[in-house]
């Protein structure tokens, strides 16, 4: 009987585990941009990473234009990873041109449904760049490089050499490597996916980073449990992350009160648009490891006592009524 109880307990635990798997849908396009400027004539690859609950669900790219020989589309089978199905769909423009500019969406259609329930979109803009060599004559004091963009709203950002920002006064040896001109182009806010949850122990310092895209740089706010905006306090502070002010939330010495759902909201006034993602913070007891450990010990002791008890009863029954059929 005991064996049976144990068996049911194990089965229940396994079923519990099965149900605790989250069945969330996530669609992530790489590069992670709302709007992407693509150089005409260049190859450009878009990747949609999809996670979904059922094998029969569909994930497809919706193209701004009819597919033709200049676009290649790879549609793999769904793979099962940690109880969730995943697919990585590549969409490659062999040679990008203005004819392919437009919105491309990665969409999720649940099994049996006729229209998508989740969509992630990227807007491709075609740009052309002309590089011209600038002659430097030995002996000249200076040489001047020009950078102009023929895009409305585009704004010069910086010059790069060997992928590093050129600061005033920097000196370079002349080599074959080009100087790159970086131009900013307005794009709505986009908060990249965060982990689903983060665990902390009481008194820990917790950093939560929010990867924010968009230009002009969006303003970041942090909200807890969808109801309270986080403000500076002895526990809460904000730092810059990847060049975005306040995109890192620092909680110094967390207590149980800080257990909850944390949401990063990025707002762009230019687009009047907000993008947000959230993460669950679980604050655990410092002695959290002790309780399951004690639980197991108590369980073992109870089991041993039960076994001893039943053995005793069996023996007792046995001696009260020895071999009745042999009489
Ligand atoms: C690919 O693009 C080129 C122009 O960039 C065009 O001439 C050609 O017809 C396209 N290929 C197909 C199969 O449509
Ligand atoms: C370099 O010197 C040549 C000849 O003196 C001159 O014609 C040219 O404009 C100079 N270029 C620059 C960028 O100063
Ligand atoms: C240049 O740096 C950026 C980030 O700073 C990186 O994403 C990119 O891959 C680098 N490019 C090259 C050619 O190293
Ligand atoms: C938060 O506090 C820090 C230092 O205590 C201060 O530098 C910062 O300006 C404050 N920020 C806000 C938004 O009050
Ligand atoms: C921003 O959008 C909201 C609706 O999403 C609208 O109510 C509000 O008036 C807009 N604000 C501006 C400044 O356009």
From TrEMBL:
Alphabetical keyword list: Disulfide bond, Membrane, Signal, Transmembrane, Transmembrane helix
PROSITE patterns recorded: IG_LIKE
Disulfide bond in keyword set: yes
Xref: InterPro entries: Cell_Adh-Cytoskel_Orgn, Ig-like_dom, Ig-like_dom_sf, Ig-like_fold, Ig_I-set, Ig_sub, Ig_sub2
Superkingdom of this protein's organism: Eukaryota
GO-annotated cellular components: plasma membrane
A GO BP annotation: homophilic cell adhesion via plasma membrane adhesion molecules
CDD domains named in the record: Ig (cd00096)
Signal sequence, renumbered to the chain: 1-20
Positions of transmembrane segments: 289-310
Domain Ig-like: 31-123, 189-280
UniProt xrefs under PANTHER family: CONTACTIN 5, IG-LIKE DOMAIN-CONTAINING PROTEIN
Protein's name in the database: Neuroplastin
Species for this entry: Plakobranchus ocellatus
């Amino acid at each position: 009987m005991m064996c049976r109880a144990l068996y049911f307990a194990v089965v229940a635990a396994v079923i519990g585990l099965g149900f605790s798997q989250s069945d969330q849908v996530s669609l992530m396009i790489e590069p992670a941009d709302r709007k992407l400027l693509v150089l005409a004539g260049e190859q450009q690859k878009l990747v949609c990473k999809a996670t979904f609950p059922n094998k029969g669900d569909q994930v497809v790219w919706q193209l701004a234009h009819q597919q033709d020989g200049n676009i290649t589309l790879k549609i793999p089978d769904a793979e099962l990873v940690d109880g969730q199905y995943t697919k990585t769909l590549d969409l490659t423009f062999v040679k990008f041109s203005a004819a392919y500019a437009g919105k491309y969406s990665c969409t999720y259609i649940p099994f049996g449904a006729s229209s998508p329930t989740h969509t992630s979109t990227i807007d491709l803009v075609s740009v052309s760049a002309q590089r011209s060599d600038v002659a430097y004559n030995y002996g000249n004091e200076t040489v001047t490089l020009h950078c102009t963009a023929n895009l409305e709203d585009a704004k010069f950002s910086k010059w790069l050499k060997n992928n590093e920002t050129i600061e005033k006064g920097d000196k370079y040896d002349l080599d074959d490597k080009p100087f790159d001109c970086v131009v900013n182009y307005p794009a709505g806010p986009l908060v990249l996916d965060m982990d689903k949850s983060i665990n902390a122990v009481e008194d820990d310092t917790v950093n939560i980073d929010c990867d924010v895209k968009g230009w002009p740089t969006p303003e970041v706010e942090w909200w807890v449990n969808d109801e309270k905006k986080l403000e500076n306090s002895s526990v809460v502070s904000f730092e810059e992350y990847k060049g975005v002010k306040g995109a890192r939330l620092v909680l110094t010495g967390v207590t149980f009160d800080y257990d909850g759902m944390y949401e990063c909201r990025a707002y762009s006034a230019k687009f009047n648009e907000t993008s947000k993602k959230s993460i669950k913070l679980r604050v655990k007891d410092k002695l959290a490891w002790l309780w399951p450990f004690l639980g197991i010990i108590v369980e073992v002791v109870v089991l041993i006592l039960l076994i001893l008890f039943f053995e005793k009863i069996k023996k007792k029954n046995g001696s009260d009524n020895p071999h009745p059929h042999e009489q």
